[in-house]
Specification:
This protein has about 300 residues and is mostly beta strands. The chain has one domain: Neuraminidase (6 Propeller), CATH 2.120.10.30. It has one helix spanning about 260-265; strands at about 5, 15-20, 25-30, 35-45, 45-55, 60-65, 70-75, 80, 85-90, 100-105, 115-120, 125-135, 135-145, 145-150, 160-165, 170-175, 180, 185-190, 195-200, 205-210, 215-220, 225-230, 235-240, 250-255, 270-275, 295. The N and C termini lie far apart (about 45 Å).
């Protein structure tokens, strides 16, 4: 396992949500606080930025359709960005509480969007994990502190989810044919830590970003701590397997919530990093490319 190397400048306030687009050999990621969806090309150990999509809101998650369109979870709405740049947005999702916004998300095998919420005011124990599809919006889980990283097991029968506050990695059964989820079970107790984004490799191991500690931790499917990648940036936010063989690990980091002294000590904060973890990952499920809730044209 190599030491992670920076592949972008340290220019992102809160880089998050990396997704590999294998069909177009491109990497997409977010800068949540700046309202940016970024599109780049991975060339060796560098990312060449090709396009920015700017939003007048926070952006919490993204998913990709086979036609290249992008689903963006804005603060309280979902927006489709077509390949030609045209945007169509939903009306506000009513299940979000006042002062809450969308956070991390992903699609299941049928293209349903699973997306969590977090609070601008730091209100805990009231956040949700939602499933959004043609049948509407369903609450899959509630009473969360800050719903964060999501990932499926290699057989797609287990859904892993992160609750950043107080700090837990959970698992539950998931029926891909119906979108039904079982009761959550605590897999790893990370009380005192702030777990964030999550990815699963082809053997079922979990790769977890740990905010505030400059770490990506690897766990077995049974929750055993197997390894740690040290990252030269404290606020590690998310991970994703990328490249033609899905054998490289992109790690996003943030400058947000760091003091001037910390930024001086960790000047690479806000970069994307690349590591070689010695394994291959799983391709994300595609979004169907349509919005199933009432919409409005935005551009």
């Amino acid at each position: 396992m190599t030491v992670p190397v920076p592949i972008t400048p340290p220019s992102y306030t809160l880089a998050e949500g990396p997704v590999w687009d294998a069909a177009r050999r491109r990497l997409l990621w977010l800068d949540i606080e700046e309202g940016l969806v970024l599109v780049g090309r991975l060339e060796g150990d560098q990312v060449v930025l090709e396009k920015e999509h700017r939003f007048e809101s926070y952006v919490g998650a993204l998913a990709l359709a086979e036609d290249g369109s992008i689903l963006v979870a804005e603060t309280r709405t979902l927006t489709r960005v077509a390949p030609d740049g045209t945007r169509t947005s939903t009306v506000d999702v009513e299940q979000l509480g006042p002062g809450d916004r969308f956070n991390d998300g992903l699609c299941d095998a049928e293209g349903r969007l699973l997306v969590g919420t977090c609070s601008f005011q730091g209100i805990r124990d009231s956040q949700l994990l939602l499933r959004i599809d043609a049948d509407g919006t369903k609450v899959l889980d509630e009473g969360l502190g800050l719903s964060n990283g999501l990932a499926f097991s290699p057989d797609a029968g287990t859904l892993y989810s992160v609750d950043s506050v107080p700090g837990g990695l959970w698992r539950r059964t998931y029926d891909q044919s119906t979108g039904s989820a079982g009761m959550r079970e605590l897999l790893v107790d990370l009380d005192g830590f702030t777990p964030d984004g999550l990815a699963v490799d082809a053997t079922g191991r979990l790769w977890l970003a740990v905010w505030g500690r400059g770490e990506v931790r690897c766990y077995s499917p049974d929750g055993e701590h197997l390894d740690t990648i040290a990252v030269p940036a404290p606020h590690v936010s998310c991970v994703a397997f990328v490249g033609d063989d899905l054998d490289r690990l992109v790690i996003t980091t943030a400058r947000s919530e760091l003091t001037e002294e910390q930024l001086a000590e960790f000047p690479l904060s806000g970069s994307l990093f690349l590591a070689d973890p010695g394994c291959t990952g799983l391709a994300p499920f595609a979004w169907p490319g349509r919005l199933d809730t009432p919409t409005r044209r935005t551009s």
